[in-house]
Amino acid sequence: MRTAFGETFDVPDGYLNTASVGVPPVRVTEAVLESVRRWGSGGYSPPEFDAPVATARAAFAALVGVAPAQVAIGPAVSVLLGPIAAAVPDGASVVVARGEFTSVSFPFAVQQGRGVRVTEVEPDRLVERAADADVVAVSVVQSGDGRIADLDGLRAVRQRHGTRVVLDVTQAAGWLPLSLGWADVVVGGGYKWLLSPRGTAWMAVRPGSDAAEAVPHLAGWYASEQPWGGIYGLPPLLAADARRFDTSPAWTCQVGAAEVLPWLAGLDVAAVHAHCAGLADALRAALGMPPAGSAIVSVAAPDAIDRLTAAGVRAAARAGGARLAFHLYNTGDDLDRAIDALT
């Protein structure tokens, strides 16, 4: 057990794999287990889960800098982005970063039958190329190597050229300070840095944007203005706000998210960023790499994963290298273990 930022975590020494799976505080695990026990004994009353859904929705909104009414819930990033990509006009041009995580690029790429053109560009040219595109879709922090997108540049492109901006915060929210109310769409999965159960994701849609008018192709009962009053019959009386994009919640998963997201949203995010990126940059310095201000480090040595594994360090093999990720529960001991393995 270890304690960080006021919470207790059952994190093993050398766990540097949050970019794959985040480890929740112990009390979050206990809340999920209690929810499962209640399910196992017939103790569920479905409407009671509306409260944790609302709590998690509001906390995600706070983490990315938008209003709760702008946020929809879903099980995964690609599911939420599907209707947004389907609403892109026929023949539209979309740019994505080369090597972008496929949950961001695939929803747009499969629209090619309508003439939608998706072009991969080098990350350092993304802002330049976005100026001539209809849509730019990119992860705020790249999964493969931890590169942080030029958000100021993308915001300027949005203002000057009207390019629609779609941002994935899956590898950013929870450690990187974010204020993204200017973007058309902000989507993120919960099971990494947000320390929530897999099966939780959220999407913020800017009011007045084209995305807000997209057809909610996955609409079901939970997308109704009054979900418990709209479970039978037609017409579909959908919510007037972003809840029209809601999919039916995974109840127990939302219980876990409601336990952890308000805590994360209440932390001093500058202190969290300094802790996470500070450890990561210390590893970069030890390996002769320049600082990046990112919590993710990619080490290109071909035997890096084998050396880390032998030293008891949990990391991931990504994009031809070893990916290490430092979150708020990591310590200098984890850093030293990684440095010893790699040097």
UniProtKB/TrEMBL annotation:
<keyword id="KW-0808">Transferase</keyword>
<dbReference type="InterPro" id="IPR015421">
    <property type="entry name" value="PyrdxlP-dep_Trfase_major"/>
</dbReference>
<keyword id="KW-0032">Aminotransferase</keyword>
<feature type="domain" description="Aminotransferase class V">
    <location>
        <begin position="87"/>
        <end position="287"/>
    </location>
</feature>
<protein>
    <submittedName>
        <fullName>Aminotransferase class V</fullName>
    </submittedName>
</protein>
<dbReference type="Pfam" id="PF00266">
    <property type="entry name" value="Aminotran_5"/>
</dbReference>
<dbReference type="GO" id="GO:0008483">
    <property type="term" value="F:transaminase activity"/>
</dbReference>
<dbReference type="InterPro" id="IPR015422">
    <property type="entry name" value="PyrdxlP-dep_Trfase_small"/>
</dbReference>
<dbReference type="InterPro" id="IPR015424">
    <property type="entry name" value="PyrdxlP-dep_Trfase"/>
</dbReference>
<dbReference type="InterPro" id="IPR000192">
    <property type="entry name" value="Aminotrans_V_dom"/>
</dbReference>
